[in-house]
Amino acid sequence: MPTNKTISIGDTFLAGLWRENPVFRLLLGMCPTLAVTTAVKPALTMGISVLFVLLCSNIVVSLMRNLLKPHLRILMFTLTIATFVTIADLFLKAFLPEMSATLGPYIPLIIVNCVIICRAEACASKNGLFISIIDAIGMGLGFTIVLCILAAVRELLATGAVFEIPVMWKSFVPWAAMRMPVGAFITLGLMLGLVNLISRKKA
Amino acid sequence: MLKWLKHFIEQSWLLMVSSFIFGLLIAVTYAAWQPRIEANKTDKLNNLMSALISQADRFELTLEDVPVDLGKGKIAKTDIYKAVSDDGGCLGFCFDAQGPGFADKIELVIAVDFRFETIGSYKVLASNETPGFGDRIQNDYYRRQFDGAPAGKLDLSKTGPADKIDDEIIAISGATVSSEAVVKIFNNYIEQIKTALTKEGMIGNADK
Amino acid sequence: MDTFHILLMAFVSIVIVNNLVFTKFLGICPYLGVSGRIDMAFGMGMAVTFVVTLAGTLTWLINNLVLVPFGLEVTKYICFILVIAGAVQLVEMYLRKVFPSLYESFGIFLPLITTNCAILGLCLFIDLWQIDSFIEAIVLSFGAGIGFTLAICIMAGIRENLKLADVPQYLKGAPITLITAGLLTLAFMGFAGMIK
Q1: Whether pTM exceeds 0.90
Q2: In this complex, do A174 and B132 lie within 8 Å of one another by their Cβ atoms?
Q3: Neighbours, chain A (3 or more CB pairs < 8 A)
Q4: Per-domain residue ranges for chain C?
Q5: What distance in Å separates the CA atoms of residue C84 and residue A64, rounded to the nearest whole number?
Q6: Closest CB to B26 among C3, C5, C75
Q7: Per residue in B77-107, pLDDT tens?
Q8: Closest Cα of chain A to B90: distance in Å?
Q9: Which of the listed residues A178, A180, B73, C20 has the most CB atoms within 10 Å of its CB?
Q10: What is the Cα–Cα distance from C94 to C37, expressed in whole angstroms?
């Protein structure tokens, strides 16, 4: 892992978006990706929740990084993340109850979302506050964007609308399969294949 | 002993301090937002019930935690709400009902008139039925058949006139199991809720 | 006899009809990474089954005996994840002392199980479905583990054969695994409605 001095801010940010995109490249955070991308609204809500938790957890871990005892650190990370996920869940229940009902148990599953723990372990516990914040925002945005793209494809094909705005022509027969687990797996698989294609062509 | 304690505190002081701080953080957030969360929950049910019995001014909880036998030894608890008009008269009853559907549990909110003789349709609270087929139990085509149907035993049939309101319900083509699930829920609950309300003497009193 | 019937139905439902991997998208991460060979997959599955049964039971107990009566439900997530982490630690220590050979064969899987969505997911689903009976919670937890093992072994078997197939270059690796998983999900959908 490059040291503090050699990472530039822009590089860190862009890494989260493309080069080390959590879903496409690092294959982290699969579970929520497949579950919440039935429509763009839940996907966006989930993405922003993950961004919030990632940001808060990175900040706290980075502030604590010199005080952590090695064998207790995973426990500390988990505790921090669980706290912020609880807060995010309470927020959704209070201000966005329909989204909270749609996303259901997948919000608390953010606690075990590999993205957050991995970033805490790999970045926040080793770098200063500012770098950690940028990393969190980059990774969080990368995750949100992927979720939204996947959700847009699935929602478009499943209901002919994106974000509940009708897009397809009137006689379009919706592909119900897209709303079911099948559609999730296959769409993600094909998108990963596409990403492989694009990055190989570039290199 | 003291050395062990000192070692223990040295290793875990951060854990204990941060647990305390996090606990405080959660407690504060919870205290701040809990009223809103409760309000959201009651709002949701109220909205659904208002959509079913639109002339009602408010809904009062009449019987709480009424046990309903779902068959095979499963007991579900439901709350019965009385729809009250603005002059205090009883307009009907609403209660939540559940039963097994094709994929998962189906939850409905059912409205019945105050004499418990006709059904005032239903709304779907939660269902995971097959999109495009089973989830058409939420659509008007199927729901309209229950509006005004007699509050007694309903029969499901595959063909027949859907616009004739009687105790014969025409199934959604391609979603027989989901359609049957809804009818079963009705048959199960109407009978048992009627018994429970009659025991309390609540049926047929338009002014109570 | 009725109770036994309910338990049997619950078990079958969570292993096949409501399989955690294929219908609830839980446990995908290790599912993609580990299922290379059937024997490794089976080992992982057994480890997960052991931990999830323990975790599901413990979290049910803590939720129903401590959190709900004392109104502490807001700490549910923290308690659950701590119980799971603790359970994994305990299992690890126990295996290392009593069955060292088994511990060796599990290798790196055990610590990884803590972040397995399937475990926390199952505990949350048991809470969501409002399971009232302790026995049912045990049966569901065990069934979830068996379902996960089933899913992961089927996947491993298919992947072993995929190595010999002619996969397009850009789909090799994760993409083709996901597509295969999707087709498996479709197959398992056929079981829906099996249990009334």
Answers
A1: no
A2: yes
A3: B, C
A4: 35-174
A5: 24
A6: C75
A7: 788 888 887 777 777 888 888 887 776 778 8
A8: 30
A9: C20
A10: 26
